[in-house]
Amino acid sequence: MKPIVAFPFRHHNTLYCEEAKKQLRDAGFALVCNDTGTQLNREEQKALIRNAFAVVAGTERYDRDILSAAEQLKLVMRFGVGTDNFDLEAMEEKGIRVGVISNCNAVAEFALTLMLGALKNITSCDSAVRKASWARYPMYELRGKTVGLVGFGRIGKRL
Asked: What's the pTM?
């Protein structure tokens, strides 16, 4: 029987490329996915991870109760940053390794895009153009401005 990698969160189809899933399958893993399009309730989550070797997690909780259903679980990877939805003490006791899959570049680029969009009043301009209008809105240049970043973790440093 192939070891199972479970994807219990509802957005796995839009957040994971097929190439990554193919690599897991080619490496000998079977994939079990939440294809409901909705967040699983606790019992459904337990059922999905019951026989999993690894879980690629979203924001769903992994507390003692949920983890008790997964006797074969050895790894939980969080898609994103932060592990505040994990009971790290219980995971350590069960010998479950924990990691995060974060894309600092993508988040930093998106933050920059939002900053420039605000500077150039993109949402107002977009709305006007969609209404067949070419209204004028104030726009500013970044030149000569000071940009402040609150927090200077991986994403802030990348930005």
From this structure: 0.70
3-state secondary structure 70-118: CCCCCEEEEECCCCCCECHHHHHHCCCEEEEECCHHHHHHHHHHHHHHH
Max CA separation in the chain (angstroms): 64
The gap from C-alpha 24 to its chain's centroid, in whole angstroms, comes to: 18
Per residue in 17-36, pLDDT tens? Answer: 678 888 999 999 999 999 88
How far, in Å, CA of 97 to CA of 76, rounded?
6
Residue type, 81: V
CA–CA gap between residue 105 and residue 81 (Å, rounded): 13
DSSP letter at 47? H
Tokens describing residue 125: 């301009």
pLDDT in tens, 34-80: 988 889 999 999 999 999 999 999 889 999 999 999 999 999 999 87
Nearest-10 crossing angle of helices 104-119, 122-130:
70
